[in-house]
Amino acid sequence: MGFKMGIVGLPNVGKSTLFNALTKTASAQAANFPFCTIEPNVGEVGVPDARLDQLAEIAKSKQIIPTRMTFVDIAGLVKGASKGEGLGNQFLANIREVDAIAHVLRCFEDGDVTHVEGRVDPVADADTIETELMLSDLESIEKRRANLVRKLKGNDKEAQQQDRLLAAAQAMLEDGKPARLVEVDADDDKAWKMLQLLTTKPVLYVCNVGESESVDGNEHSAKVAEMAAAQGNSHVVISAQIEEEISQLDPEEAQMFLEEMGLQEAGLDRLIRAGYDLLHLETYFTVGPKEARAWTIRQGTAAPQAAGVIHGDFEKGFIRAETIAFDDFISSGGESGAKEAGKMRAEGKSYVVKDGDVLHFLFNT
What we know:
Number of helices: 15
Distance between the termini: 22 Å
Number of strands: 13
Oligomer: single chain
Radius of gyration: 23 Å
Mean pLDDT: 86
Largest sheet: 7 strands, mixed
Low-confidence stretches: 27-38
Helix content: 40-55%
Strand content: 15-25%
């Protein structure tokens, strides 16, 4: 599985510029990281991972297939979206379908680009969108709880659980806080996720700064960093202007340009890595002469479920996983060397896959 990140923001903050630049940058990278447009506002990119190239080189793999990430450029938001203002309803419906929200905030001064509120205040912008999401969730909760009344009278256990969770979310929202702050027991985790409340989505703040501020940020991005830390969310500093310039260059020119700007890597790479951290994702690999391939799983995933990411039959008929840690695969010169060095392990159903594991699954058909 990859993951889907919705890119949101007020008008004129650089949201669509960033989306277009990131997806063009991805297509301009090596063929290992292809980009394809699924819809006009949906882009799928390969996740850059230097480890995959190392594994492919040792195994002499004919093909390299990265794991994938989907960006969704969600319709611009205005105040009142929860009541249908602007493209409010479309905006809110699209957010329900993503795993996380990348909230682009204007952190640059430019008199030629008008701010919808007539000022540059990224913290206030973040509050505007959060408020609209909270209002939408409150309205949704009230309707859903009203629809549960009949089932509750009949002592329906599932309805009781749903109503209890909705009540907890409602109390949090009425206190002016997002539903993601509700503490949920493990027994309620599945039912909680199925509520699909907008304010349960983890948030990554993307500070869009000017070109000269791309390395260290500025006073606006510093305020966003402070806000994100207080909320337990993440932030990343990116210049959409730089990303747009990079998107027009070939990989070699792009790398030279980044070095001249004092940047280690493109914004796409930093955005993906921040997204992985935010969603507690990790990568495992399958490697052979035919292909070297990366797969995305959530941290804490057991071997059978990791196998199921490749194919449901792998999970159903799981027998065991032959496992080599990434460092052991590299230092041993591949699978044969790892076997001879005693670095290959046979792991059963209870094994929790670790980031970088090179796996081969055995299963019954």
